[in-house]
Amino acid sequence: MDPFLSEIVSGPAARLQRRSAKIIYGDKIVVVGGGAPVVVQSMTNTDTADVIGTAIQIKELARAGSELVRITVNNHEAARAVPDIRNQLDKMGIDVPLVGDFHYNGHTLLKEVPECAQALSKYRINPGNVGQGAKRDSQFAQMIEIACEYDKPVRIGVNWGSLDQALLARIMDTNAARSQPWSAQSVMYEALITSAIENAERAEELGLSGDKIILSCKVSGVQDLIAVYRELSARCDYPLHLGLTEAGMGSKGIVASTAALSVLLQQGIGDTIRISLTPEPGGDRCKEIVVAQEILQTMGLRKFTPMVIACPGCGRTTSTVFQELADDIQTFLRDQMPVWKTQYPGVENMNVAVMGCIVNGPGESKHAHIGISLPGTGESPAAPVFIDGQKAMTLRGEHIAQEFQKIVLDYVQRNYAQK
């Protein structure tokens, strides 16, 4: 009898089939859903009325890998700045599509500043912030009608911090009439999901094509997000935007976002993601893009940049040389990618190992495309380099870091240059 009951396989579930939405600017087309790769997006934190400052940050985000960039459009000054921002980006050769984030007065801004409506590639509408009472329906309708007029897709983005109170009251009344009422948490989940789907259906009734609608239901709790998106995914086939809203700062925000999104992505749920990190004072806004890319790459869903494999260090590796080299190589690879992705197709599949001692160093280096095993405490001051599984050379002396970086660059040029 075969002792092995079944083959052990790995990998995420197939992407769930959704509608396909296209976000377009000029010749640039970003496809969300429909089996397309999961799209990475981000949002500026500049004052949109500051045309130059906002354009510069958008350029930085786009070069870091953001495939869509959302900007706040909260007043007339911001709305009037949008076409100027678009023009500045054109001058810089940045064709990333722009998404306008509207709350409270979007119907007014889109109507009174048509240049803004035209310059944006997509609108984000929060159903809880489009108006109250009778005004809510008419103001939502105005925004959808403008989207139809300019042929723009929309994201209907529900957030539990700004949920439509009338809809919540309706669902609470329904729940109160049940023989066994749901918990308050379940009622909130239902309100989020119902709001997203009902508003999407309303948008279609108003004439917006179903392939121009993306949905999101943002919450700030990991288990809440997983529960909401599982149910939302089961009830509709619109493309879904994933993100843990107000994820937080530093390791907390990174860990929480990774925990929530990885579970959903593993199940085939999610077509575009944004990591809502609070930047540290003076921090780099692009960090949220790096985190998003690394989630997708480590999950095996996309490839963005060569991966650096490095050991954590222990008592055998008291020197900081391998830490510094790993950091230098990782920074070098990411910095090169805006150019490399056009000159060296496939380079994002490369793995580089930087190991700190003889225990796992040679073995791990052999598994990588290029690997180096640096000397640990008490080891011979030599660093064997492995290329495609074979020992190629041994580096010694004070310039190991520079020599290894050149070896990596030579490997890229030799193996990934366009034939």
TrEMBL record:
InterPro entries xref list: Dihydropteroate_synth-like_sf, IspG_bac, IspG_bac-typ, IspG_C, IspG_TIM, NO2/SO3_Rdtase_4Fe4S_sf
Gene3D superfamilies named among the record's database cross-references: Dihydropteroate synthase-like, Sulfite Reductase Hemoprotein, domain 1
Protein's UniProt keywords contain Transmembrane: no
Record's keyword annotation contains Iron-sulfur: yes
Alphabetical UniProt keywords: 4Fe-4S, Iron, Iron-sulfur, Isoprene biosynthesis, Metal-binding, Oxidoreductase
Biological process annotations from GO: isopentenyl diphosphate biosynthetic process, methylerythritol 4-phosphate pathway; terpenoid biosynthetic process
Cofactor: [4Fe-4S] cluster
Cofactor binding: number and manner: Binds 1 [4Fe-4S] cluster.
Entry EC number(s): 1.17.7.3
Pathway: Isoprenoid biosynthesis; isopentenyl diphosphate biosynthesis via DXP pathway; isopentenyl diphosphate from 1-deoxy-D-xylulose 5-phosphate: step 5/6
Reactions it catalyzes: (2E)-4-hydroxy-3-methylbut-2-enyl diphosphate + oxidized [flavodoxin] + H2O + 2 H(+) = 2-C-methyl-D-erythritol 2,4-cyclic diphosphate + reduced [flavodoxin]
Signal peptide: none
GO molecular function annotation: 4 iron, 4 sulfur cluster binding; 4-hydroxy-3-methylbut-2-en-1-yl diphosphate synthase activity (ferredoxin); 4-hydroxy-3-methylbut-2-enyl-diphosphate synthase activity (flavodoxin); iron ion binding
Top-level enzyme category: oxidoreductase
Domain IspG TIM-barrel positions: 30-292
Chain positions recorded as [4Fe-4S] cluster binding sites: 311, 314, 357, 364
Domain (IspG C-terminal) ranges: 308-408
Functional note: Converts 2C-methyl-D-erythritol 2,4-cyclodiphosphate (ME-2,4cPP) into 1-hydroxy-2-methyl-2-(E)-butenyl 4-diphosphate.
Family stated for the protein in its record: Belongs to the IspG family.
Protein name, per record: 4-hydroxy-3-methylbut-2-en-1-yl diphosphate synthase (flavodoxin)
Organism, scientific name: Undibacterium rugosum
Lineage: Bacteria, Pseudomonadati, Pseudomonadota, Betaproteobacteria, Burkholderiales
